[in-house]
Request: fold
Amino acid sequence: MKKLKKTILFGTIFLIIISYLIFLNRLGKLSIFFNQKELNSFQPDTGYAWIADIDDPKIAYGYDLPISFYEDETRYFLDESWTTADVREIGKGRFVVWNNGTICFSTSDNTDPNVNNRTYKFVYPKMLGNRLARYVYVITLLSLLIMLFVEIISNRKKMSSKLETFLFFCKENITYFSLLVGIAISFVVLGSKYLLRLPFWGDELFTLKNYVFSSNWFYPATYYNYPNNHVFYSLILSLYTRLFGITSFCEAVIQPWKIRSIHLLFAAVTIIFTSLTARKINRLAGIIAPLFLTSTIPFYTWTTQIRGYGLSIMCMSLLLYHYFDYHLSKKKYHLSIITIIAALLIYIMPSNAIFIIALMIVEFIETIRNCSALKPPFDWKFQFCKSLKDCFEYKLLRSFLFGGLLSLFLYFPILDQVLMRIF
Reply:
């Protein structure tokens, strides 16, 4: 069974990497091979603009594809700032790619390309077809499901034992859990009554129209033209609308409760894990913390906003729970969970990295304090390395760091756009 699990694990990781590389290729972020299309006839547009059809709609995929235009031996690179109006009114070698894959271009001296005796060609990256990409994505998903199934089968005894322990814990703390469930249900009921049917406001409409109801569900991960795109949140909302049959922007505006409902789930998870974290101090804190949280106006009013703040707070509550539990139990699985949650938290919006950095500073200070307590004998370096290896604060610091690096990996398809908006 161990060999089978290991084989499935490595196979799944390999498929995930291949799927990600295909995704990057279809965005134009991984271009190894290029097509060359020489053109002989052109249709006039307006002003200095001419139209060329290269008969390959994939050229319109993605953002900022490395497309170039040749006039004889002179090469012009596609500039993101160019518009169709610039091509028509200014010309001078400018060109744009329309959504249907048509090229709207101008010659270097704004002459007629049909009669100026020059050659024109376009060079653009080769991208894998939609069908092949879907096959790979489906196989990767199936591999993940098989890995999950094998993991459940191989650990069913351990899971059964943990379930019995959990049920015994619930039975011993029935009063606490009853109060916690009551607080969560009360909040959800009030939220359903007073918040779900509120009409959308400006930023919410912008988010829905530009990111959620787009041509592809993964569009938010490919385009970052404005900080309103809280990427991981937008991806969740994009999938949510498609799974529950919310098909249009107009339908969402007319019935806002359909979109806002998922946010009550985020709030309920936040309430529960805030309580579980506070309970590590004492039982009373486990009740006071969710009461305090649900009675604060900012948390209540922002709970169902079509923005990434509610999901961010939920991720923070999950992160703090595993952070404190690791401090108490030293169980290694918390480190992996912390890395993943930290990465997703930053992937919602880059400013969430401030929270991660603050926790990293705390753990860095604790790491230095623990290691500096060593007295320097002849084997001081050995003792320092051993102390660092055994230091759980250092392990936490490393998990946060890996989370930050993983978030860069997630942001990679739009990293240049994100940095442009930040700086």
Summary: DSSP finds 17 helices and eight strands in the chain. The radius of gyration is 27 Å. The chain has a mean pLDDT of 85. The first strand starts at residue 34 and ends at 39.
